[in-house]
Amino acid sequence: MMAWLDDPGTVIVLVGALVGMASTLVGTFLVLRGTSMLADAISHSIVFGIIVVWLVAHVQSGPLQIFGAALTGILTVFLTQALIHSKRVKQDAAIGLVFPLLFSIGVLLLNLYAGNVHIDTHTVLLGEIGFVWLDTVTLGGVDVPQALLAMGGMTLINALFVGLFFKELKLATFDEALARALGFAPGLLFYGLLFLTSGTAVAAFDAVGAVLFVAFVIVIPASAYLLTDSVMRMLGYGMVMSIAASVAGYALAVRWDVSIGGMMAVMTGIFLLLAFLIGPRHGVVAQVLVRRGQRGLNETRTLAVHLYNHEDSHAQQEENVVKALREHLHWSDGRARQVILRGLDQGYITQVGQMLNLTATGRALAMELLNAHERGR
Predict the structure, then answer these.
(1) CATH number at residue 321
(2) CA-closest candidate to residue 246, choices 228, 225, 267, 230
């Protein structure tokens, strides 16, 4: 019944997908707020929280470890905000001051007091998702990977938080002053979001490490942001890309015999590149097409105004001909041909031999443009 739990590949892909989905749920709002680098800071500074919890309670995993280390994330943000509010440093510098400090203290404590414990900085930073299926607990007679339970729980908690406070989170993200005026406590929501980000980072670090967590919490939401202007669709696209990055990353890692976590992170970067290039509104290709369409529209307008200015004048036979577009408007033969074809297709002009004439629609367009120009002077 639970045979799929015995398949290492299935477990690895599922853990990666859960890390991606849990990270996307919180990372989407961090990206929209412009505070996504706090996730990177949190993912490193939790080393301090992990070792402090071990020193106090002697536990390396479980809810207490997640809660204690998550508090370190809150401490990171609190110290960062304190530095920002001092007006001596900006946000990027404040982040760069706080998290290396906490991370360094955590590494020192780890070396001094926990040298014989299975907690090391390599595991925290890189993890090893390829071995998550080996670390199991028995539930109802079934061996279930701990990473699967931890990430499944965090995904559920994050989904409940976002689902319950979606409207409040969206309002606090885009208009904090209005959210405060309506009594939504945007500061409390923000710290709650960061607490869950810290908890997700702690739950993920043993399986995938901080590097892949950062890729999922920042790169995937940033990719989704390039695809849509809707927060709901952004969350949905992020979920889909998280699953796709896990599946494709695992398949390619097995095929090429490379790091599974590393290939999953590479896939998030590929999705970002694709979104940057072919995003429907903000992608490079879309922007090129928009600019090309705008240039074509401007050329058609130029042709209409040119023909209108010389219509019914003694120069009409000389100016309103194909040759004049090359000589007087300095258009190449190919460009002039394209503009004429566009004008014919759109019903702005007619052509008899070399002679170009405005239609009623083209004449109305030219008059509208000239009147608008006069009003703008």
Answers:
(1) 1.10.10.10
(2) 267
